[in-house]
Fold this sequence. Notes:
The structure holds two protein chains of two kinds.
Chain A: H1 3-14, E1 20-27, H2 37-52, H3 55-66, E2 70-77, H4 80-83, H5 89-105, E3 110-117, H6 124-139, E4 143-151, E5 155-157, H7 158-174, E6 186-190, E7 211-216, H8 221-233, H9 240-269, E8 272-277, H10 290-296, H11 307-325, E9 329-330, H12 343-350, H13 356-362, E10 369-376, H14 381-397, E11 402-409, E12 417-419, E13 426-428, H15 439-443, E14 447-448
Helix pairs in contact in A: 2-5, 3-9, 5-6, 6-7, 7-14, 8-9, 8-10, 9-11
Chain B: E1 2-7, H1 12-22, E2 25-35, E3 38-47, H2 53-63, E4 70-73, E5 89-98, H3 103-113, E6 117-126, E7 129-138, H4 144-157, E8 160-166, H5 167-174
Helix pairs in contact in B: 1-2, 3-4
Amino acid sequence: xxxxxxxxxxxxxxxxxxxxxxxxxxxxxxxxxxxxxxxxxxxxxxxxxxxxxxxxxxxxxxxxxxxxxxxxxxxxxxxxxxxxxxxxxxxxxxxxxxxxxxxxxxxxxxxxxxxxxxxxxxxxxxxxxxxxxxxxxxxxxxxxxxxxxxxxxxxxxxxxxxxxxxxxxxxxxxxxxxxxxxxxxxxxxxxxxxxxxxxxxxxxxxxxxxxxxxxxxxxxxxxxxxxxxxxxxxxxxxxxxxxxxxxxxxxxxxxxxxxxxxxxxxxxxxxxxxxxxxxxxxxxxxxxxxxxxxxxxxxxxxxxxxxxxxxxxxxxxxxxxxxxxxxxxxxxxxxxxxxxxxxxxxxxxxxxxxxxxxxxxxxxxxxxxxxxxxxxxxxxxxxxxxxxxxxxxxxxxxxxxxxxxxxxxxxxxxxxxxxxxxxxxxxxxxxxxxxxxxxxxxxxxxxxxxxxxxxxx
Amino acid sequence: xxxxxxxxxxxxxxxxxxxxxxxxxxxxxxxxxxxxxxxxxxxxxxxxxxxxxxxxxxxxxxxxxxxxxxxxxxxxxxxxxxxxxxxxxxxxxxxxxxxxxxxxxxxxxxxxxxxxxxxxxxxxxxxxxxxxxxxxxxxxxxxxxxxxxxxxxxxxxxxxxxxxxxxxxxxxxxxxxxxxxxxxxxxxxxxxxxxx
Lengths: 457, 196
């Protein structure tokens, strides 16, 4: 090992805050199923404590061994829409409360999987789960929810999307004291991955084993620092190819650290290691922003022409470096453009440079979609549904995951400030142009058929 | 065990190993470096016939006359030096900051007090900037955090930054081979990893 390599890795850890964003334990809850809510909740509690009871202690041990911080610990469970299919609304609420309590008990900050997969059709149980979301998201602290409303194989369930527009309005209203924060815990997906470790959209999908450790790698700060260093110190101005190479090699290192930590945590808990998710997940801290990476690449005003190309370069280079580093790459694995959580993106909104239309275009080349976007509180449910449909269509047609996490902020209008706090950040509310112009389209309902997979232009 | 030092020139390793070969010797392990223009080699050799330390020393010196070699030869009993090496996990310790007398001594003292065995160390001063990278075995009954806080305390008192990180982090981020969890000493000899 060369001294230069030691110092290069060390500077990533110390100066650029290399960390592991999340250790997410996926737990299959299918064995807990029971038509009796009390029995089901008891079994869920027992099973989660069996697997996750030592998660905190083990993460501490591994942090101490390697000197790499693990920022968040989380649990993702099987879609509750399946596990609790036979329960009535009261039963579903009891399950949500159980998840919330156990999450607090085992000291994880969030638990994902209050989820329904309704891409082709929905069962009575799925309908009840979706109807219960406003209550769940407004009365629990740690429970996160997701609904998969479309896949490339099945098409798009517009009935579910129409319902979710109303659910968002209701959830926002019930959490109006916190700028509609309940909606920040609900992700509406197209092509949802089964092994995503990032919240709020994590759930333990079909085809997974009993218990698995998935890892979300370090945030954008490390990549930003690498690009800035290259640009500042190169003897000649680096080309975009040079920048891509730099991002690739940084992503390699970041991914390797994630895999090392994940494998050690899994080994100590005697459970399977799943995947490393390469997603660059921003936080509101300065220096931990995907937007700042684009700025380091020379896009001074995020949202200006060139933003989408720069983001495409970033996303692709991260994937290339990460997939060379590990054969266990999965989840979402792309750069997040979560607006309120990303200080540079939030500033670009405030400056008027970044619009909803540009964000939608940018999501065609990265993950995860229209994420953490505050919109006016008086936006009608059908417009929210149409916004969801647009974004899901991008994913379904392009064989990729897209998602929507929008927050209609009650009592506030475009240009007002929405404050969610903590990791969820804050932003100026974005206007939706031509709102109300697609009501009839949404009200048709039914299913947008699965796309053709040939003639791909 | 043979150590040879000299001002660095091309051909010293060729000369030293040639002298050993002439005596029927076989190199078992060797480590060589050049530091600030000065050549140092330490090696262990076995011989098919009994040889005295004086005989070996003179043969090396004679064959390398033009290099003005300083040679020391120690006979190792039963092929191994004693005492047995400390067992533990490999960590990379890094210290960076302003230079001053006694830094290596102070750090080595802190580590020795905890039973931490230094197995490879490189330190240098560039201008007034001091840097030290060492590979050390931290005994299994010690937590890395305790060594980390001990060194950090020393660092704060002497305006230095000190870091303790598991070697697997560096292996994972610099080598394309699969990520490994354990770092048993196994067949790998001590002192090997910083040398290549």
